[in-house]
UniProtKB/TrEMBL annotation:
Residue intervals passing through the bilayer: none
GO annotation, cellular component aspect: membrane
Protein's name according to its UniProt entry: CRAL-TRIO domain-containing protein
InterPro entries listed in its UniProt record: CRAL-TRIO_dom, CRAL-TRIO_dom_sf, CRAL/TRIO_N_dom_sf
Gene Ontology molecular functions: phosphatidylinositol bisphosphate binding
């Protein structure tokens, strides 16, 4: 692999070995068991999950270690915060598998709004990646226009989409990029609370490396909205927000030539994109697979 592509956004990566994974998983389990690190009250949902949820096994814990570049204490904090937030969002279904028929059984409407979409091959369900192997998450706020929805359900839908991306081990290691397309953004599609929920979920709870955000064709008044949300991104992520305000063709060329995202990997919802993304078809495919 071209190392330039891998380190394009300045993120750190760890060379994994079986010995490293084994030792760090052992350290993580010991830390999570320690009441001096976190009190039983603060980690009670993690304790319940470790007993009743198959999503709290070593495979799942490895996602958190990868997200935090194998910094054990940071991974432990994120795991505890993750389960606390998952219970807050999903209630009594929090410990059920993250599938459309179980944990997300009340979220069919939110999922079908297509506000946050993993970029996938709709026929096979395969995840489409950039040239370094990162997953791509496509977000188009215009899709919220004239929609009636519950914000908590919409946040759960985002969690579902990101969990789907994290089924891929390469994405666990290399992270995701966001292609944000606010061209038709208006006050009718502006939901700062939902945006805050999604940003904080990715930054603080979900075991995902958010490598960069490509903001394509923002309207002239978008700066005001972005100024309100930029504080949530944190200093490091703010530096990796790339604004693309050129013509349709110039933006596509920049994404391909500079950032390794060819137009065939850009959904055709965005002007000039070459990928037909049948997101609802993908949801149906996964539902039939029990996902």
């Amino acid at each position: 692999m071209d190392q330039t592509a891998l380190h394009r956004y300045g993120q750190a990566f760890v060379q994994e070995t079986p010995e490293l994974k084994h030792s760090k998983l052992q350290e993580l389990s010991e830390l999570l068991s320690s009441d001096t690190f976190s009190t039983p009250e603060k980690k009670k949902h993690y304790i319940t999950a470790s007993t009743y949820s198959h999503e709290c096994n070593d495979w799942s814990k490895l996602k958190f270690l990868r997200c935090e570049c194998f910094r054990v204490e940071d991974a432990a904090k994120r795991i505890i915060n993750y389960w606390n937030k998952r219970v807050e969002l999903f209630g009594e279904k929090a410990f059920q598998p993250m599938t459309q028929s179980m944990a997300c059984s009340d979220d069919a409407h939110a999922l079908r709004i297509n506000y946050v979409m993993p970029v996938v091959d709709s026929r096979t369900g395969d995840i489409i990646k950039d040239d370094a192997g990162r997953g791509i998450l496509y977000i188009e706020p215009y899709r919220l226009t004239d929609q009636v929805y519950d914000r908590t359900s919409m946040t759960r839908a985002t969690w579902y989409s990101i969990h789907a991306l994290l089924e891929d081990e390469e994405i666990q290691k290399k992270g995701i990029i966001v292609v944000f397309y606010p061209r038709n953004f208006s006050k009718y599609s502006s939901d700062r609370i939902l945006s805050k929920n999604n940003i904080t979920s990715m930054r603080s709870y979900l075991p995902v490396k958010l490598e960069a955000i490509h903001c394509c064709h923002p309207p002239y008044f978008f700066e005001f909205f972005y100024a309100l949300l930029s504080t949530l991104l944190g200093e490091r992520l703010r530096k990796r927000v790339i604004i693309h305000s050129e013509s349709d063709e110039e933006v596509l060329q920049t994404l391909e030539q500079t950032y390794g995202i060819v137009r065939g990997k850009i959904p055709d919802f965005m002007q000039g994109g070459g990928l037909t993304l049948d997101y609802r078809g993908w949801l149906e495919l996964r539902k039939n697979q029990g996902k």
